[in-house]
Design goal:
The chain has 514 residues and is of the alpha/beta class. Among the domains are: 5-186, Rossmann fold (3-Layer(aba) Sandwich), CATH 3.40.50; 418-513, ANL, C-terminal domain (GMP Synthetase, Chain A, domain 3, 2-Layer Sandwich), CATH 3.30.300. The protein contains 16 helices and 27 strands. β12 (259-261), α10 (264-271) and β13 (286-290) form a beta-alpha-beta unit.
């Protein structure tokens, strides 16, 4: 059994799901049934095979949210290949690194991203580019049109031996060394994680789950969506770009959504809608939220406005189980400061720097063990060995377990900023800024932001007699880093506080500037 099983069940030989049941819908627009999703994924799989993709090859998916995204992902899974799901918000330079590091053989991308890919097309190892047209932007001459995938055979691929331990997905997470790391997931990881959620929340064929995040993110696909597809329910996708909470609320009402994941800033947007009470949320059972804690006033307001809707806070990470712990609604009043208890088949322990397990109430590093812990980092044996130890993922997050087994996150061992549901590692931004000839020293920290939890702040020391404006600095980094990683504030100081050994004391900067 492999990930392709989720959609192959419409085949007569193993039919366990109604072919005409709606599987995917893009908001209230395009719709695919399970039969269409399976048939199209087969077409893509046969076409990719004809283009030379074999088991273990990497296929890049650089698409905005669309139905084709799922079909391509399942096609890659059916071939025993590895889907490299790439954040479309990154810069050309970041694309180049990921494509070369992963050894991506074929890149499938949206035409509106052509301008980012064209500058690097000759410097990457990609053998062929396949373009899905959108926004009235036609396919570049150097890329194949999407028709090359659509012309494949709709028959099921049955002659590839795929083991549950084979890799199926490679997702790059921001790295502490200035370069992202590719977290590798197996078919087993994916199916186990889907079943863990089904067992925890009772997702079934009647479930209508709405995904509000980008599909390159586990929070949009692995969280809830794949679980609902496994059970034969329906998944509603939101379009990429121009997030509009009222459009989301209208879709919840129109499509009778039962389960939705909203990042904290989306929850705040929702509560600020003046005519919120006019929407019909009769079918909505659960709102999930994760990535950052939701502030207490918002939780209280949600319970007050919608007492029949469960609000579930979750904690996890791409490589260490995307939902490793969850706080049940019934526990919110007494344990609202925590992220809850471990998910089914999940263990959590707190250790010190020597790896010794700490007692209840003592802060240390959070470690997670479950069938959904990543296989490791692609091509990075040292980082894999230091993060994944005897089956445990050492998360880099600091926290403690109370006497009842509830996990509370205290901070981040890694120097990471959480902005609008995205991870931003300070070293990535520092690595780009320090290239400016006028900058002698730089430190990047997170500062409080009322909507996005944290915003990126760069504190800069200039070379003697150098003068440079914030506008000039932002222009310099414009094409070198993703927009969400760019500093919202740039401060120029005479010097940065350092320890006797030369390490920047960021806690002093946080005290001074936050």
């Amino acid at each position: 059994m492999n990930v392709g099983y989720l959609v192959s069940r419409v085949e007569n030989r193993i039919q366990t799901i109604a072919p005409e049941k709606v599987a995917l819908k893009l908001e209230s627009n395009a719709t695919w049934t399970y039969d269409e999703l399976n048939r199209i994924s087969n077409q893509y799989a046969h076409a990719l095979r004809q283009m030379g993709i074999v088991k273990g090859d990497r296929v890049g998916i650089l698409l905005y949210n669309c139905l084709e995204y799922f079909a391509l992902y399942f096609a890659v899974a059916k071939l025993g290949a590895i889907a490299v799901r790439i954040n479309f918000r990154l810069s050309s330079e970041e694309f180049e690194y990921i494509l070369n590091d992963s050894g991506t053989k074929i890149l499938c991308f949206h035409s509106s991203l052509t301008d980012k890919i064209e500058p690097i097309k000759k410097s990457v190892k990609v053998k062929e580019f396949v373009c899905l047209e959108n926004d009235n932007i036609s396919t570049a001459k150097w890329a194949s049109s999407w028709a090359v995938l659509e012309n494949g055979s709709p028959s099921e691929i049955v002659d590839i031996d795929i083991d549950k331990s084979d890799p199926v997905m490679l997702m790059y997470t921001s790295g502490t060394t200035g370069r992202p790391k590719g977290a590798l997931w197996s078919h087993e990881n994916t199916l186990w994680f889907a079943n863990m959620q089904i067992l925890k929340w009772g997702l079934n064929e009647q479930s209508v789950a709405m995904s509000t995040g980008p599909l390159y993110h586990v929070g949009a696909m692995e969280d809830i969506s794949l679980s609902v597809l496994l059970m034969g329910g329906t998944v509603i996708l939101t379009s990429s770009g121009g997030f509009d909470i009222e459009r989301v609320l209208s879709t919840i009402e129109e499509e009778k959504v039962t389960d939705i994941l909203l990042f904290p800033f989306m929850v705040y947007d929702m509560l600020n809608v003046q005519h919120l009470s006019t929407y019909d949320f009769t079918n909505l059972k659960r709102i999930f939220s994760g990535g950052d804690p939701v502030v207490p006033w918002a939780i209280e307001q949600l319970h007050s406005l919608f007492p029949d809707i469960d609000f579930v806070q979750v904690y996890g990470l791409t490589e260490g189980t995307p939902v490793a712990a969850s706080l049940d609604p019934k526990d919110a009043k007494l344990k609202g400061y925590s992220v809850g208890k471990p998910m089914p088949f999940t263990e959590i322990k707190i250790v010190n720097d020597q790896g010794n397990v700490l007692s209840h109430g003592t802060v240390g590093e959070v470690c997670i063990k479950s069938p959904a812990v990543s296989m490791g980092y692609w091509g990075k044996p040292e980082e894999t060995a230091s993060t994944f130890i005897n089956g445990w993922c050492h998360t880099g997050d600091l926290g403690y377990l109370d006497e009842d087994g509830y996990l509370t996150i205290s901070g981040r061992k890694k120097d990471m900023i959480r902005s609008g549901g995205e991870n931003v590692y300070a070293v990535e931004v520092e690595d780009v800024l320090i290239r400016h000839t006028a900058i002698r020293d730089v430190a990047v920290i997170g500062i409080p932001d009322p909507k996005y939890i944290e915003a990126v702040c760069a504190i800069i020391v200039l070379h003697q007699d150098e003068v440079v404006s914030e506008k000039e600095i932002l222009a310099f980094i414009d094409d070198k880093i993703a927009r969400y990683k760019k500093p919202k504030q740039i401060l120029i100081v005479d010097e940065l506080p350092r320890t006797p050994s030369g390490k920047i004391q960021k806690f002093k900067l946080r005290e001074q500037f936050t």
